[in-house]
Design goal:
This protein is mainly beta. It has 2 domains: about 210 residues, Jelly Rolls, CATH 2.60.120; about 80 residues, Jelly Rolls (Sandwich). The chain is about 15% helix and about 35% strand. It is built from 7 helices and 20 strands. Strands 14, 15, 16, 17, 18, 19 and 20 form a 7-stranded antiparallel sheet that branches. Strands 1-2-5-12-7-10 form a 6-stranded antiparallel sheet, with no helix packed on it. Helix 6 packs antiparallel against helix 7. The radius of gyration is 20 Å and the shape is globular. It starts with 8 loop residues before the first strand and ends with a strand.
Length: about 325
């Protein structure tokens, strides 16, 4: 098999901005694009291969055809033949709703779906004006939570962070969160589209309607514990992998390369995804397949990949993630 690029799935939203289209070098007139789904196996939003002999097939078809050679043998068994990760770029001109996602047990019981643990990597912060919310800042009970929704004060109980490029937030299922205005981020998450909307700032859509809130559903899903700091600490370093997150659903590292590097995946029983945020590079796999990657692109390397040779054009910065 060979490295795979996919056609982006663009989502217009009431809070979307204008960064995604130029970032991904797309010739597109679509407005208010808040999300670009880079690699998705969500039913109804399956990514379509853009290169090679399998161009035109969607990701569901690819997993069905190549099985463990694409996903990894253990992943293929563990996730029942579904691709386990959803990769996005998100551009927030305005605040997204306050929301929470259920864990695997609750999502399976209610929706026959995986839960949604995710992480964010901040690519841009709109000149220093961006912020986001992650986690509870003080202890509240479910009853207090419900009252704070009713009287529009729930934001008073949330940790709010000014962010800068390179900031990382890990969001296990159950953690209340919201991407704030000015954030441009890469998101890695479980393959799930289950979201409970907690609060939407009383705003209305183009038809003058407020969006549905899921107050009762979210009460059981929320993790009410409080942490001192919800940011993910790490020390940036050039020309070596820097691990950001390791959890049962994905392991993610950031690379900032100024010279060639050989990646050894021979002992890894998983696909690998690169998500490029800055610069560009040429990548050659152990079978001699060569592919170019530039900022705004995401590439899926099948589990059958043994080695990759990455040669930057100057410098390149990308995320590496696998299960």
């Amino acid at each position: 098999m060979y490295p795979l690029k996919f056609r982006p799935i663009l989502k217009s939203t009431i809070w979307g901005g204008d960064k995604i289209i130029p970032f991904k070098h797309l010739d597109c007139t679509q407005q208010n694009v808040g999300e670009s789904w880079e690699i998705s196996d969500v039913p109804g939003d399956e990514s379509v291969v853009a290169n090679g002999a399998d161009a035109g097939k969607n990701l569901t078809q690819m997993v069905r055809e190549y099985k463990g050679a694409l996903t990894g043998e253990e992943n293929y068994t563990r996730f029942g033949g579904r691709f386990p990760l959803l990769i996005k770029f998100i551009d927030a001109r305005d605040d997204l709703s306050i929301q929470v996602h259920p864990d695997d047990e609750l999502a399976m019981r209610r929706h026959n779906s995986m839960g949604k643990t995710e992480m964010w990597y901040v690519i841009d912060n709109d000149g220093g004006k961006a912020h986001l919310r992650s986690g509870l800042s003080r202890n509240i009970t479910p009853a207090q939570y419900e009252q704070m929704i009713a009287d529009n004060t729930i934001c008073d109980a949330l940790s709010d962070y000014a962010v800068r490029p390179g900031d990382v937030f890990f969001l296990p299922a159950g953690r209340i969160h919201s991407i704030g205005a000015g954030c441009f981020i890469a998101e890695i998450q479980q393959t799930s589209n289950i979201t409970y909307r907690i609060y939407d700032f009383c705003r209305k859509d183009k038809d003058g309607r407020t969006r549905e809130l899921h107050t009762e559903l979210s009460k059981e899903a929320i993790d009410y514990s409080v942490e001192q700091d919800y940011r993910t600490p790490y020390t940036p370093c050039k020309d070596r992998p820097v691990e950001l997150v390791s959890c049962p659903y994905f392991t993610t590292s950031v690379y900032h390369l100024s010279g060639p590097m050989t990646m050894d995946y021979s002992a890894l029983d998983s696909f690998v995804i690169y998500i490029c945020m800055e610069g560009s590079c040429t990548i050659t796999d152990n079978e001699g397949n060569t592919i170019e990657m530039q900022a705004g692109e995401s590439i899926l390397f099948p589990a059958a990949t043994q080695h990759l040779e990455v040669i930057p054009s100057g410098e390149v910065k990308f995320l590496e993630t696998y299960v």
